[in-house]
Amino acid sequence: MVTVMAADTTSTSTLRFGVKTTPMHLTYDEILRVWEEADELPELDDAWLWDHLMPLAGPPGGAILEGWTLLAALAARTTRLHLGLLVTSNRLRSPAHLGKIATTVDVVSRGRLVMGLGVGGTRQPTGPNPAVAEYAAYGFPLPSPGEALARLTETIAILRRMWTDEGFDHDGPFTTLRGTRNGPGPVRPGGPPLLLGGWGDRMLRIVAEHADIWNVPGPPHNSTAWVADRTRALDAHCAAVGRDPAEISRSAQIIVDYADPATTRTHVHALAAAGIGHVVLALPRPYPTKAARWLVDEIVTPVRETIQRY
Fold first, then answer.
1. Is the Cα dihedral 270, 206, 242, 212 positive or negative?
2. To the nearest whole number, what is the mean pLDDT of the chain?
């Protein structure tokens, strides 16, 4: 039986951990090595990729593997870890196509998929926007933030129907579907748990309405006071839509520092104190030998031991 990531309270006694491998300037074998090792370590609950088509740092022509294709391959090579993309760009695939892809990965993993989803790139009035080059290179127009949020809401509705209805039509603001079917269906009744990533007020409203899990990135917003503020904002949105905030698991991702694990541990403790119950530890490249074991020995176990003492 597959255990679904449960909703958290703010208690640090249930703090859970995942690992993230960003498939940028890395080979498949390097990523596979970390995932297979992590799959053998029960201290790590889940493993994650991202969803970009071009590197966001380093040589722009460097190697990068497509997220969902890679996730399917890693799902076939692991047996225990929950897995997903942190997070899927809603703009890179049509909603029904994404639902079919995700269902296939869920079946391959025997029900271990967590459906991570975000708005994707949007037009920004000021500041650098790495999505511009990536979307232009692959022929995707950048929507306004408002349009991106509306598209995300429609995708969620379509995914839910693909995972519950035998067949359906859909007439939405951006998508028209006729006679859509999705067999085989996902392993779990109702489909994979839905993780939504983001932090703006309009996004948090969507999280309150639809998500099982909320994820917020650490960098560049690595202030735990900021995380606590966003957590309170989500609670307010839950109250507005009549939902128990405890139904939504709170998750954050941070980049670990191989040279200074003590600082990473301090950051994890602060996130837990801010109401985060699940921390995804992103590994910088290149990965050291036994990178997953390093996470357990230097971050996960010391943090849990400290929590138990207090």
1. negative
2. 92
